[in-house]
Amino acid sequence: MRKLPYSCGIDAAIDVVGGKWKVLILWALHDRRQRFGQLRRSLPGVSEKVLIQQLREMEADQIVHREVYREVPPRVEYSLTDLGVSLNEALAPLGAWGAAHRSHIEAVRGVPPAAEGADGGEELAEPEAVAAVSTFGGK
Q1: Which of 2, 45, 108, 133 has the most crowded CB, counting CB atoms within 10 A?
Q2: pTM for this predicted structure
Q3: What is residue 68's predicted lDDT score, i.e. its pLDDT?
């Protein structure tokens, strides 16, 4: 974790969501709590080690809540805190921009467009869904 003072709000926000997977974890948790396996399946390409690390950092930043159920076998669920919901709301315009310009970005970067359902998982919801969910005031 960073120990230097932030120079601005963007600096602080980027420190919280920095890394490839944190924003995608936020998006994946936008509408419901998920168990670790569900979350991992919704994020193709993330390793178990990296997902655990990112979730721990987000929990330490109080963006994600980890609920441990004392049952056999043990069950753990992850959900967004109110702070995480508000962060997702702040990211919604960025998601809208990405959705609007996705084909251009793919073309100039030489990234092939994803085939529908090619990864076996669901595509993460667009910002409109996040905004609609976030109006409920958190989880």
Answers
A1: 133
A2: 0.76
A3: 94
